Amino acid sequence: MTPAMSASSAQASRPRNAGEIVVSFDGRSLTYGELDMLVPAYAATIHKSQGSEYSAVGIPVLTQHYAMLQRNLLYTGVTRGKRLVVLVGQKKAVAIAVRNASGRRRWSKLAEWLESKNVEAKNVEGQL
């Protein structure tokens, strides 16, 4: 596994062989056999990562982010990692998140919209 490096310290150089890329991280060069082995990493929210998988995931879990300490968010974050998941923070925060199954109530008009469509469908059936 390639160690994580800061993007600000990385420089790509001319490959020695076709299909390779050489990247220098703080003076240490690493050769990647295929371009898809080198994946740019960005901080992404758990919400935006839904449906995706990453080889390694780091999740900050801190009591200062109390509103985000929810079981479903922790589960989603942990299940994004294929090979490595690292929780960084406090054991207490992880315990709070695991116990908090409530989540926030979603304020959408989906139920109202579905009900109106159901009423419309019944009105159409009555006219036939």
Index terms:
alpha+beta, 30% helix, Rossmann fold, 128 residues, 24% strand, two-stranded parallel sheet
The total domain count is: 2
Largest sheet: 3 strands, antiparallel
Structural class estimated from helices and strands: alpha+beta
| N-to-C CA distance | 66 Å
Q: What is the CATH topology classification name of the largest domain?
A: Rossmann fold
Low-confidence stretches: 1-8
CATH homologous superfamily assignment of the largest domain: P-loop containing nucleotide triphosphate hydrolases
What does this structure look like?
The chain is an alpha+beta fold and 128 residues long. It folds into two domains: 1-41, no CATH class; 42-127, P-loop containing nucleotide triphosphate hydrolases (Rossmann fold, 3-Layer(aba) Sandwich). The chain is 30% helix and 24% strand. The protein is built from four helices and five strands, in the order βββαβαβαα. It has helices spanning 46-49, 71-78, 91-99, 110-127, and strands at residues 10-13, 21-25, 28-32, 54-61, 81-89. Strands 1-2-3 form a three-stranded antiparallel β-sheet, with no helix packed on it. β2 (21-25) and β3 (28-32) form a beta hairpin. Residues 1-8 have low confidence and may be disordered.
